[in-house]
Amino acid sequence: MSVKAFKLVSAVEREMLMGDKNYINIECIECCGKNLYIGTNDCFIYHFLLDEKVSTAGKITFAATKQLHKYLGLKKPVSELKAASALTRLLVLCDNTITLVNMLNLEPVPTGARIKGAVTFTLNENPVSGDPFCVEVCIISVKRRTIQMFMVFEDRVQIVKEVFTPEQPCAVAVDGYYLCLALTTQYIILNYNTGVSQDLFPYCSDEKRPIVKRIGRQEFLLAGPGGLGMFATVDGISQRAPVHWSENVIGAALCFPYVVALDDEFITVHSMLDQQQKQTLPFKEGHILQDFEGKVIVATNKGVYILVPLPLEKQIQDLLAGHRVEEALVLAKGARRNIPKEKFQVMYKRILQQAGFIQFAQLQFLEAKELFR
């Protein structure tokens, strides 16, 4: 059963990025507040300012204004971008090297600080150092079966730890001291402080692209076997039922209470509350799906789009209008963490009342009585 949970809105049209240069492709994106950064296959970084506009009818559009672009001087694609806003730094991975550049003018830091030998990298969103002027970076090293942890400051980098893994790692997410790793044949949780590891479940990285995503404190979302989106905690257990994806999911993102997944033809939306698929949006040639501070962005090789969530109250009212009382109540309860307490209590009472009238009209008197109570 479908729910309209998101609308797909264009943010950056291909002409703004490449004009008539068809050979330019989008390789990676990063969004920090209103700042959108795009890395391309011809070694450029583009910086746009995103302005969200709401019409009187409530329609949301985005206007992207190009600030500047910068050539990194190599004949290699820019493969990853991550913003460290507290340091006003952008971490740029190109040709196995992470360079620190200024977020505003895209100039490299004068000290030339960089991390060499990185295949891919991620930031620790639950850092252990406690230093607000430092970000913790975890890289999969070009050295075989090696993960390295770094502390990155405004103008210098410092290696903290080197960890060896039982098989070659191909994807990683970090929470505190815990690494969630996709190895060649399985997913594992590894505490890089104690060296203790725990197997999660088997997975063949040769057949499919692994997905490892931190979705909250000590919890990860993984692409499991059989097209399942599996949840795992740092203790190696799952506190939620899996969601059923297609077999060839490329990327996943979280926008509570929804898990959004991208494959080669569709964007699918599943509820974390009841695991049901709620929405399907046709989207061809997509290759990036990421969430940034609650903003879900998808991209093809040529354009960038934003998935705008519809207000939860509107979604609940749509479910009630379709007499889908159970789903409406599940979504309403799940909305508690997104809405201030007083406002939530008023809203929830009204929803229970509406649901009661719907059950009453369907002659389900016992259920209606409970809801009215």
From TrEMBL:
What GO CC annotations are associated with the protein? cytoplasm; membrane
**Superkingdom of the source?**
Eukaryota
Location of this chain's protein in the cell: Cytoplasm
Recorded source organism is Baryphthengus martii
Lineage of source species: Eukaryota, Metazoa, Chordata, Craniata, Vertebrata
Q: Which Pfam families does the record match to this protein? A: CNH
Q: Tell me the protein's name.
A: TGFA1 protein
One Gene Ontology BP term is: endosomal vesicle fusion
Q: Which UniProt keywords apply?
A: Cytoplasm, Protein transport, Transport
Whether Glycosyltransferase counts among this entry's keywords is no
| Residues in CNH domain copies | 23-296
> Cytoplasm: is it a keyword of this entry?
yes
